[in-house]
């Protein structure tokens, strides 16, 4: 029998028992109702008839007294009226004879009443002859007939009342028996149903308990657990499938446990041998694992850290933000790599570690966690600082002689240019141009060194972007028209202001547009746009030029990196590096999206002032 049929059978038996109890109660209630109806039908009508006969008989006696007092006509008429009513109730009493002896009593009442009526006729005759004879007749004969009829009517009422009382007692006993029997049948039905349901639930739940116990054993590693299959219903099928699963798990466990342990040890050995720090996190940013190098970096010692929030180990706000963004987006956020550095103070010096965050993606593309890799770049930072110091010092030292050389060359060009031959004039002019180029290079190096060292002065204000775009476009309108290049922009109407140094942002835009003009072919297009993304505004300079080769895109913002275009480049290779440092000083990021042959898009972000940020954030 299937599990469904067993459950339906249990409910059916319970419903049948309920139906039996209800039927028994209905039958008893019907019997009680019939008993009550019998009381009303058999006795109440006779009592009502007796009461009305007594009442009308007494009224007739009163009318006789009025007749004797001299109210003859009125008394006789009223007597006849009550006589007809008495006879009516007498007839009803005769129709409702239900008690032994009640019929003879009713006949006696009728016979004596007829005698009483004849006596009234005799009274009227004597009254017409002599009032005294009439009074004597009433006292001696008619009043006795009245009392005889009245006592017999009272007896009729009394025997019906006694019978009614007895019937009421019988109805009360029947009601008591009904309650007792109904409760008894109900309790028996409840007990039978309870016993049956307990038996049925035991048969249904028993296999489930065995399956649960076996499941717990399997979860604890006991793959030899089995469930007895003593039924053929759905639970029996579940037990069969469970036993098959446990058997396969036992076989799989015996085959793979040694391999899994071996692979785990290999992974732990590899993780421990890596010189970079590694922290493995779950999706809740809790530590799943870390290697000895990471413990050394963050001075964790040997204390247990598995399962703890990463904030217990790391207190760098920048690192925690990137970790949270990676979990939220499921991929590494686009960030400036030079900003992904965490500093760890030591007693002797501060150490610097560049970190890379990579999400862990499962086979079904769900996010399982993330891995943070920390690489020691302290020496690189020191070398970069020394290089910047050297560049700044060298630039300062070269600026004075270059100025002198420039003044000398300008003086020669002014005074002796016409006296020189053509070759000497060319050499002198070339020297002047090279000195100018060196001056631009040295000024850009000094500017870049100031930005990198944090010595540049920034005038942050709440700036609308529309005037900046208009200013930049006006500078390059003539140059773009000369090359047949379309230069345009588009800004959303609700674009908020940005927190920025207007002059520095203008310089960045001019540098990006200048580079685009250098590489975009004739009849090309350069497009400026901006949009709000969260608490930042993203500004884009889009062109349909030849694009940037893949091998250059990762280092396009490095110093002295130049692309070879159709025209000879006279730049120093520092423009984009300065742009990157200016954007970093604004706490923004800059990057490029480009496909060779499909143009380039330079993007950078600027923060929105806190007063203009969206409330929902």
Automatic annotation (TrEMBL):
Stretches assigned to the PAC domain: 335-389
Location within or outside the cell: Membrane
Main subcellular location of this protein, as a coarse class: membrane
Protein's recorded name: histidine kinase
Domain called HAMP: residue spans: 202-254
SUPFAM superfamilies (alphabetical): ATPase domain of HSP90 chaperone/DNA topoisomerase II/histidine kinase, HAMP domain-like, Homodimeric domain of signal transducing histidine kinase, PYP-like sensor domain (PAS domain)
Domain Histidine kinase: 393-610
A GO CC term assigned to this protein in UniProt: membrane
Catalytic reactions of this protein: ATP + protein L-histidine = ADP + protein N-phospho-L-histidine
Annotated TM spans: 7-27, 179-200
Keywords linked to the UniProt accession: ATP-binding, Kinase, Membrane, Nucleotide-binding, Phosphoprotein, Transferase, Transmembrane, Transmembrane helix, Two-component regulatory system
Membrane topology per record: Multi-pass membrane protein
Organism from which the protein derives: Candidatus Glassbacteria bacterium RIFCSPLOWO2_12_FULL_58_11
A Pfam family per the record: HisKA
Biological process (GO), any one: osmosensory signaling via phosphorelay pathway
EC number: 2.7.13.3
Enzyme class label: transferase
Organism phylogeny: Bacteria, Candidatus Glassiibacteriota
GO MF assignments: ATP binding; phosphorelay response regulator activity; phosphorelay sensor kinase activity; protein kinase activator activity
């Amino acid at each position: 029998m299937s599990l469904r049929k067993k459950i339906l059978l249990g409910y059916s038996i319970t419903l049948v028992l309920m139906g039996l109890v209800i039927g028994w109660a209905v039958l008893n209630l019907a019997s009680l109702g019939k008993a009550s109806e019998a009381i009303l039908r058999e006795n109440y009508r006779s009592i009502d008839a007796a009461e009305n006969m007594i009442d009308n008989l007494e009224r007739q006696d009163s009318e006789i007294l009025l007749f004797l007092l001299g109210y003859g006509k009125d008394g006789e008429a009223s007597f006849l009226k009550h006589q007809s009513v008495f006879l009516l109730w007498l007839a009803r009493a005769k129709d409702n004879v239900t008690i032994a002896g009640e019929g003879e009593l009713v006949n006696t009442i009728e016979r004596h009443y007829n005698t009483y009526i004849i006596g009234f006729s005799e009274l009227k005759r004597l009254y017409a002859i002599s009032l005294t004879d009439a009074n004597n007749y009433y006292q001696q004969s008619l009043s006795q007939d009245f009392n005889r009829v009245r006592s017999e009517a009272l007896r009729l009422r009394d025997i019906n009342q006694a019978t009614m009382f007895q019937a009421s007692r019988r109805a009360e006993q029947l009601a008591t028996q009904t309650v007792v029997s109904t409760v008894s049948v109900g309790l028996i039905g409840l007990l039978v149903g309870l016993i049956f349901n307990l038996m049925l639930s035991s048969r249904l739940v028993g296999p489930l308990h065995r399956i649960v116990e076996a499941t717990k054993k399997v979860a604890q590693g006991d793959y030899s657990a089995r469930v007895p299959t003593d039924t053929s219903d759905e639970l029996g099928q579940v037990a069969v499938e469970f036993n098959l699963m446990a058997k396969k798990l036992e076989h799989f466990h015996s085959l793979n446990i040694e391999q899994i342990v071996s692979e785990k040890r290999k992974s732990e050995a590899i993780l421990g041998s890596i010189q970079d720090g590694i922290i493995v996190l779950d999706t809740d940013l809790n530590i799943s694992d870390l290697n000895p190098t990471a413990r050394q970096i963050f001075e964790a010692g040997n204390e247990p850290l598995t399962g703890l929030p990463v904030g217990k180990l790391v207190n760098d706000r920048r690192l925690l933000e990137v970790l949270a963004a990676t979990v939220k987006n499921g991929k590494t956020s686009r960030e400036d790599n030079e900003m992904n550095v965490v500093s760890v103070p030591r007693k002797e010096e501060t150490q610097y570690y560049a970190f890379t965050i990579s999400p862990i993606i499962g086979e079904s593309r769900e996010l399982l966690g993330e891995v943070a890799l920390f690489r020691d770049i302290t020496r690189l930072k020191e070398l970069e600082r020394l290089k910047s110091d050297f560049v700044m010092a060298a630039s300062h030292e070269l600026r004075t002689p270059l100025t002198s050389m420039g003044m000398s060359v300008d003086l020669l060009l002014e005074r002796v240019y016409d006296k020189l031959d053509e070759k000497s004039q060319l050499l002198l002019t070339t020297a002047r141009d090279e000195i100018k180029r060196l001056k631009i290079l040295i000024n850009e190096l000094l500017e870049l060194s100031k930005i990198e060292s944090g010595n540049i002065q920034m005038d942050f204000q709440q700036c609308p972007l529309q005037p900046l775009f208009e200013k930049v476009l006006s500078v390059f309108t003539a140059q773009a028209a000369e090359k047949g290049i379309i230069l345009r922009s588009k800004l959303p109407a609700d674009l908020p202001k940005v927190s920025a140094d207007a002059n520095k942002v203008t310089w960045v835009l001019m540098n990006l547009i200048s580079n685009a003009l250098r590489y975009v072919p004739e009849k090309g297009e350069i497009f400026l746009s901006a949009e709000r993304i969260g608490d930042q505004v993203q500004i884009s300079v889009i062109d349909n030029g030849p694009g940037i080769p893949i091998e250059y895109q990762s280092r396009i913002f490095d110093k002295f990196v130049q692309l070879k275009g159709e025209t000879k480049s006279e730049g120093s290779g520092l423009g984009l590096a300065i742009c990157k440092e200016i954007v970093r000083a604004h706490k923004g990021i800059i990057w490029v999206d480009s496909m060779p042959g499909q143009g380039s898009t330079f993007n950078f972000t600027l923060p929105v002032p806190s007063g203009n940020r969206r409330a929902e954030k």
